[in-house]
Every structure is written in structure tokens, then in C-alpha cells.
Design goal:
Helices cover 55% and strands 11% of the residues. With 373 residues, the chain is α/β, with parallel strands linked by helices. The radius of gyration is 24 Å and the shape is elongated.
Amino acid sequence: MPNTTEPENIKHQGLSIILPTFNEAGSISKMVSSLLELTSDWRTEILIVDDDSQDGTSDIVRTMARQDQRIKLIQRVGRSGLASAIKEGLIAALYPFAVAMDSDGQHEPPAVLAAVEQLDNGADLVIGSRFLVNSAIHGLSERRTEGSNLANRLARWSLPKNYCHLTDYMSGFFAMDLRRCNQLVRKVDVNGFKFLYELLAISKGRLNTIEIPLNFQPRLHGSSKLDYAVLWDFLISLIHTALFRLLPRRAISFGLVGLSGVFVQLIITSLVMSLGPSFQQALPLAVVSAASSNYLINNTLTFKDKRQHGRQLLKGLLKFLLVASLPSLANIGLATVFYNLVQTNAIVAQLSGIIVVYIWNYAASSRFVWNAP
């Protein structure tokens, strides 16, 4: 069980608790009430950062906030994402010490006291770990637990050696001294996989970081937000860190998606040529198909925060094809010349053209199609 000794220093200086929410109407009231009871004689604020939930979460919080001034709501419209919600909450925090935790009940409120006690003892960052000896996991399937273990091993490999003693880089529960972490918080890439992982990566091993055991519980309401896009973000985060964070995350994702387009182009070219048409006849269809595939995947993964739907999806596809048209013509032209004059190998010829289009497509489509920096 967590140590529930109250740290007097933090008790009087103040504690901000950040709860990011998205469709948590079934759990938010109980969670907030438990935290208020736990810190009833503290200088405390509870910041609920809601991504415009459609289930009435913000209405519940608004009603509670009218009755207790310690409760504050940040309702976000037109922007979303767990990492950005945590970052926005931490930047808006009133007090020098802060805790970020899930709002679905998987993180027990008493862990807050154990975490801030360690902050009071001088830690910069305290992580609630599901994988310490005294930890307990009740809310994860065996498959999810194995996946988390694998993710932690990969994270340990990619992060500064000063953090190799940690056991849960994927944790959603952490506390920090904002006087020492605030500048790093502002630099966290909110398009990253996990806020904590990104914070550790950019801190370069300088934070005095310790862990406390978590008693991880089944969620009170709702379902997991983990999906293929989250897994993709983790892959990009690992590559981003391995490349010393020199390339933009979107550029890395765009490049990997482009590789899938290479395979689409090669496969379609081979299939069409097997039906009789020449390489020159098959290539235009293959290039357009690959570009369309790239657009749909990028819309889902690379630019998920600006994802287009319905009519906008079709308009975006047309814009993407327009942006890609000039380099696509160059792709076809260079590949054809290479095929005719240098080497009559369809694969090598196509690769020579594909290399030309990447930089243009990324820069132009980011601005023109998704209006992203």
C-alpha cells in the first residue's frame, strides 16, 4: 500500500492534479471526489482537460466546479490528444508541484500522496510503476502486459542511460516539481507517443527520477484508447529518439508511409505487366495508386490530429494528387529514362524516380493538404 504520510511542504505550497479526459462521464465524478477528499486540507486544484467529450463529461465537471472552486475545467475544441492535454494542464497549473494521472480510475488516488512525498524529499520526477516488486496489475490483460513489457524494453534501449533503472516508461501516472521541469514540459512534442517518454527523452538524463509502486486497477468506465495509431506513434518515437531527434516526427512517419507506397507501386506494376501491358503503360496507374495509398495512410497516422473526413477526405485526396503530380511526372520520366538507357530492371528504374519525390511531397502536402507545420 502507498505511504499516506502528508508532505507538509507541498501541502502548503500547493498541488495541481491534471486529469485528461475524453468521454469519461462514467468515472470523472467519483475520481474527482476521491482526490478532493484525499487532499481536503491542502492547497489544491484539480485541472480537468477535456477533449470536447460527447458524453457529457464537461457538463459534469462544470457542475462540480460551480460547487468547489478547486475544480477547474479546460475544454478543448479543435485540438485533441493525451500528450497535448497533459502538457496544456501542466502549463496552466497554478501550483509548483503537479501530478498527472488517468481519469478512468486505473490509478488509485492514494498514490498521489506517495508520489508527492518523494517530491518533498527532493525528486524532480516521480513515476508510478506497474512493474515494481510491490506493484499490482488488475486492469490489464496478459497480452497487454506483455506488450507493455516489450515497449518498456525498447524504451530503455532508446533513452539516456541515467534512466535505465526505471521499469515503466509507458506510465500515465507521474508527479513533478514544475520549478525544475517547467521548461522541459514546454518543449515536449505533443505528437509523441507518451508524454512521459518524450519528457525523459528531451531531458537527456538530467532529472532526478524515482519510481513508486502502483496498484493498477480496472477502469471504472469506458474502454482502452490503445489502437494501431498509438502503436505507430511509439514506433516513430523510437526512431525519432534513435536519430537524435534531428528529423521532425512527421517527416519520419511520412517517409515510412512512403515506403509502403513503394511496395504498392512495385506490386501494381508487376501485376499490370503480367497482364500484357508494357512497363511504360503500367507505371502511371501504379504511381497514382501508390500516391492514393500514401494519402489515406498519412491521413490516418502521420496527420491524425488533422485527420480529414467525408467530403474533406475526397478534397484532400485531390489536393494530394495535385501536389504529387509534378514529382510523379518526374518519377515516371526518370524511371522511364533509367529503364530505357541505364538498366532494363523495372524495380531499380522505379526506385530512381521514387527517391526524387519524397522531400517535395512531404513539404508541399504538409502545408497544402493538411495545413500542418
